[in-house]
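Q: I'm writing a short methods note and want an example of a predicted protein-small molecule complex. Could you take the sequence and the SMILES for zinc ion and return the bound structure as tokens? Please keep the output block clean; save any remarks for afterwards.
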Amino acid sequence: MSGNIRTWFRQLNERQQKRTLKVNYSAEEHICDCCGTSFCGNFCPQCGKKSTFTRMNLKHAATECLNFLGYDTRSVPYTAKELFWRPGYMMRDYLSGYSQFYYSPFNMLVITTLFFVVACWLRGLHVDTEPQFLYGDFFVRYNAPEWMVTLFAKVDDVLRWLHQSPAWSAILFGIFYIIASYLVFRKRMNFVEIFISQVFIFSQMQIIGTVYALLTGSEVYYNMPPFAVPIPLGIAFLCYDYMQLFQLGFWASLWRTILSFVVGYLLILLFMATPMLIVKYTELL
Ligand SMILES: [Zn+2]
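A: Understood, no commentary inside the block.
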């Protein structure tokens, strides 16, 4: 029985490793009416004009409108599907030069964040709790200079706003998680590679957050900072991503996932606490 399950998992994994995008190659010879080059294929190798170009019609108009979603080859729905079907393998593909099939990770993050914002708005998502971290009257109590008191009162306003806006706070605090995952995985990839794959992972998390917000309408922020998703879902998906991305076994991936989450959370706390520590210790001097 367990042998069958293992075989099934192995076969599933083999299927996930295969790239899924099929390009319909046009074998016919074309002469580009733009630059005169003769070529075989879907695009002119010199100027990039499509060999199947016809007169402008409604389909063109629709494509132009949806172009910001990359409706040619690098489509958002395709990239989103890959982010769930074979996330880690897809990131490996992207990093090893197969980037033309996928929507750019940074644009993907912006679009998934916008979807998340709209989902929260549609569900009238209202966060009732207070943020976990606020400076409050700390700087008044420690006789900090006036400008600091004013500045951190403003910071508290921003923190309250972010608490009400899970989609944006995930992006803002994301940088701490990226540093944490670099500390955990630096032997396997360089910083830029980790950064780019993390931007894909954040897009994946924003999609999970969107679906979660749409289905439940309940607050998601601070369940698993910096990600605006519930902890069990977040850990499960990160573990799955890292198994494929770094070719790790389940347990090897799980403990690194938990470690990177804890380190990321500590980095956020350390960053937020630094001004408090400075004020406290300069007062003691
Ligand atoms: Zn041409």
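A: Remarks, as requested: The radius of gyration is 24 Å. Residues 32, 34-35, 37, 44, 46-47, 49 surround zinc ion (CB under 6 Å).
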